Amino acid sequence: MTNRDDLVAACDRLLEPERFKDYTANGLQVAGREGVARVMTGVTACQALLDEAVAWQADLLLVHHGYFWKNEPVTITGMKRRRLATLLAHDINLLAYHLPLDAHRELGNNAELGRRLGFTVTGCADGVLGEGLVWLGEPSSSFDAVGLARKVGQCLGREPLLIEAPGGGEIRRVAWCTGGAQDMIATAFEAGADAFISGEISERTTHLARELGIHYLAAGHHATERYGVQALGDRLAATFDLEHRFVDIDNPA
């Protein structure tokens, strides 16, 4: 059994949330019981994940998308009330890390996605590694846009939406940023990337990709952000001798 505050402090030391200007509160969002033996991880603290945590008798739920986002309604009603009531009724802690878990150079979503896709990391387009969000790298094999899309689909178990830039050719430099980072495509282009991988796509993204001349792959917000929280959960389990279980709540977006 591990003390909750010791576990939270270890996460804060590892992820350094104070270095990020985020849209939500990072760290312990809802306090539950002090003793932690079972940690469940997931992408988003939706009701389905909360129900899994209750059924498994988790002591702490660790997620990438928690609650209390900037500009959301502050009233505790409806869906928000049901979610919080579930946590409080079962004394479950909710621990959430957003941008710090995207950016972490070893356990973050970008680091984990790049590792799974076999990219050799060469830097970051919008800051130093560990702080910036648009990662740069080189593929381990020779790909054109269709081949890269096939590789991403095989890795994530989800076929990405590919917007091919005119001209085609071999992809020598890749940029990626998990989640909803489609508007960072210009940053990826300016860094010299031939292709940019993120989670979502907007109407404007298609025109940007075609006119800038950079391939764009929308691989799914949820699909690209499944791995950082798993890596963090595994690290906590090994460090504190905890039981860890990741639950993937299906989400096609």
TrEMBL record:
It comes from the Bacteria. Transmembrane segments: none annotated. The keyword Cell division does not apply. The keyword Metal-binding applies. Pfam families: DUF34_NIF3. Gene3D superfamilies: NIF3 (NGG1p interacting factor 3)-like. Keywords: Metal-binding. NCBIfam families: YbgI_SA1388 (TIGR00486). Belongs to the GTP cyclohydrolase I type 2/NIF3 family. This is Nif3-like dinuclear metal center hexameric protein. The lineage of its organism: Bacteria, Pseudomonadati, Pseudomonadota, Gammaproteobacteria, Oceanospirillales.
